[in-house]
Design goal:
Layout lengths: L7 H16 L1 H19 L17 H13 L4 E8 L7 H15 L4 E7 L7 E6 L2 E6 L9 H14 L12 E8 L12 H16 L4 E7 H10 L1 H23 L2 H24 L11 H25 L4 H29 L6 H29 L6 H22 L4 H22 L19 H12 L5 E8 L8 H15 L4 E5 L1 H11 L14 H8 L15 E8 L4 H18 L5 E6 L1 H35 L2 H25 L8 H26 L5 H28 L7 H32 L6
Antiparallel strand pairs: 1-5, 1-6, 2-5, 3-4, 7-9, 7-10, 8-9
Helix pairs in contact: 1-11, 2-9, 2-12, 3-20, 4-6, 6-7, 8-9, 8-10, 8-23, 9-10, 9-12, 10-11, 10-12, 10-23, 11-12, 11-20, 11-22, 13-23, 14-21, 14-24, 17-18, 19-20, 20-21, 20-22, 21-22, 21-24, 22-23, 22-24, 23-24
Amino acid sequence: MSEEKKPARMVAVIKKLEQLIFGKRRLIIGLFVLVTIFMGYSATNLRIDAGFSKLLPLQHEYMKTFTTHGKEFGGANRILIALMAKDGNIFTPAFFATLEQATADLFFVPGVDRAQVTSLFTPNVRYTEVVEDGIAGGNVIPSDFRPTPEGLEQVRRNILKAGIVGRLVANDFSGAMISAQLMDTDPNTGKRLDYIAVGRLLEEKIRGTYEDDKVEVHIIGFAKVISDIADGALRIVLFFFIAMVVTTLLVFFYTRSVKLTLLLIVCSLGAVTWQLGMLPLLGFGIDPMGLLVPFLIFAIGVSHGVQMVTANAAAVHRGADSQEAARISFRQLFIPGTIALASDVVGFISIWLIKVQVIQEMAITASLGVAVIILTNLILLPVLLSYLPTNKGYRHRVDEQTHVLRPVWHFFARATERKPAMVIIVVCAALLAFGLWKGADVQIGDMHSGVPELRAESRYNQDSDAITRHFSIGVDTISVIVETKAEGCIDYDIMTNIDNFSWHMQNVAGVQTVISLPGIAKVINTGWNEGNLKWRVLPGNQTTMVQAVGYVPTSSGLLNPDCSVMPVMIFIEDHKAKTIAHIVSEVKKYQTQFGSDEIIFRLATGNAGVMAATNEVVEAAQFPILLCVFLAVIVLCFIEFRSTRSILCIVVPLGLVSILSYALMSLLGIGLKISTLPVVALGVGVGVDYGIYIFSRLRSYLNEGRSLSDAYLHTLAITGNGVVFTGVTLAIGVATWIFSPLKFQADMGILLTFLFLVNMLGAIILLPALACWLLPQRKE
C-alpha cells in the first residue's frame, strides 16, 4: 500500500529504520563483512554428521520397543555381506577360505557388535539332528574342518540340518551370507560411530579385498547407504554449483549489469555462508539428507534480491538517483519482504513437528538461514545498491527492457477482466478437482523397492537386488517382540498363541518368511520322535516342551535368558509403503483379537519396523504442518493487508499448488516421506513470497485510485517482472538436479521445479483473476 495509507506508526518505524540504515551505510557494510568472514571461518569446521539414531522417530511407540529390545535381539542397524561364487558352487576350498577370512575381517571393523556376527564360520550357527540316542548337534563348520571333498560334503549336510538355506546360504548354494549388527558408538573411541567411514572401510576391506574373478561381493546396510550418499555429496555440491552458475547467468541476462548481478549473488551467498557458519556454533554437523538446504536458502535469497533490484530499477526509470532509488526500494519492500520471509521461516519451523532429530536440526538451521536473508537481501542489498552509479547506459537498459516486455504484460493483465478471469477460475477449479482426486493416491513412505535415495542402477540397489534373488529372507525385516511372563517358552498356551501368530503372518501378502521359537521347537520335537512329521507339533507336556526348547540358545535371537521375551522375525518382500502398512495392520489386528495382559505382540524392530514408525510419524505430521504454515500465512497477510478478500487472493493459489504437488507425487511415484514432506511445506513459503510481493504492489496502485486493470499492468511491469524471472530462473537451476545420480536429489529437483513454476503462474494469473471478482472495482 502507499505510504499515506499505511498506519502512521508503521510509516514512522520504517522511516527511522531507513534513516538508521542509510545514515550508517559504511558501518553496516563493515559489520556484514566482518560477520561473513567469521561465519566463513566457522563453516570450515563443518563436518558431515550422519547418525543412525538421528533418523529414528524415537518418541514413537515402535521405537520404544526398538530401543528396549533392539540391542538384545538386533535392531535395524545391521550389515549384510553376501559372497557369491561366480561358478555357482560354494563348496570349494578357495571359497571357504575367502568366507572364513572375510568373517574374521568383519569382526574387526569399528562399531561391529562381535557377539552378533553370524556366518557359517561363527559358533552361533549350529545344527541339530536325530540320532539313535535322541538329538545331537554341533557347529555347522566343525572345529576340525578341513576343506577336503569329504569335509565340504559334511558341511553341506550340516547346512541342510541347520535349516539355514535361504538365510545364511543361498537357495541354490551359489553364495553365503555374513551378517553383523552395528553399535551406535565406536568402542575404541567412545564417540558416535562414523557410519561413512564404516561404509568406506567395508568397501575397501571386504569388497576391495575379496571380489575377484571367482567371487562377487554384495554389501547392504545403513552404514553402506549413508556412505554411498556421502560419496554422492560431491556430486550434490557439483549440481549446486551448476545451479548457481545457471542462476547467475540468468540474473545477468535480466539485469544486463555485471555489478548488479554480483551484488545480488554475493548477498544471497552471504546468507548461505551465515547459515553454514552457524551450524558448528550450534553444535550441529550437516547430514547428507540436508545438503540441499543451502541451495534452498540461496534460491530464496535470489528471489527476494531480484525483487529489490527490480524495485530499484523502477525507481531509476522514474528518474531517481542511486541513493534515492535504494531508499525507495527499501521503503517499499522491507515490510512485505519481511512478512514473506517470516512465512518461509514458519514453513521450515513447522517441520519440527516431525519428531526425527535430523529433520528437527534441518528445521532450526534452515529457519535461521531464511531469517538471515532479511539482513542480507532486505538491508545489505539496498545499502550496496545505493553506491551503484545510475548512468545513462543503465537507465537506457532499464527503459529498453520495460519497452520490450510491455506487450507481454498487457497480455497477462487481461486476467483482471471479468470473462478471462472467470475462465481462469473455472480451469483452476478443474485442476483443484483433479488434484484432490489424484493427490488422494499419494503413498506415505517408499513406493519402490531398494533404497529410494539412490537410483535403481546404483551399486547398492544392485547388491540389494542380488541378495533378494538368491536368498529367501530378503533384505527387509520387521520383528514383532512378544512379551510374556517368565518361562513363557515352556507354557503350551503361550507358545501356541505365538505359533498361531507366526502362521497367520506367514500367510499375509508381502511376507516371505517367518521365523519364531515355536517353529524351531516343533522341528526339535520331531527329532525327539524319530523324525516323524506327525510329531511336528508343540508338545502339551511341559517336560517335553522344556526338551524341545532347551536346544535353542539365546544367541539365536529367538528368546531372552528368562524366556519372557520372544521375537517373531518377519522377512518381507520389499519395504514399499503399501507392503509395510498392510503387515503392520495385520499385526495390530492379531494383537487386538488374541493379545492379553499375559502376552503382548509389540511392534517393532528391524529396518522395516523403523520405516513403519517413520511412515506413521510423517502421516500424522503432514496435515498439522500444512495447517501451521497456512495459518501463519493467513495471520501474517492479515497483519499486512487487514482484509479477508486480500488473504483469499494470496492463499487460494497456494492451496491449489499444494494439492497439485500431491497429485504430481502420485503420478511420478514419489512417496511422501521425511525427505519430501519438508519440500511440500516449503512450497507454500516460496509461493507466498510471490503472492505477497504481487499483491502488495497491486494494492499500492489501487490505493492511488487506479483501476484494477491499470494497477495490475503497472504491478506486472515492476514486481511481476521479478516474480516471473525468479520463478523461471530458479526452476531452470533446480531442473539440473533431475540428472543427479542420487534419486532423492532428482526427486527434489522435480518437485522444486514444479513448485517454483506453478507458484509463479498462480501468483500472476490466478491471483489477479480472484482479485477481479473479490476486490471492489473502479472504473477505467
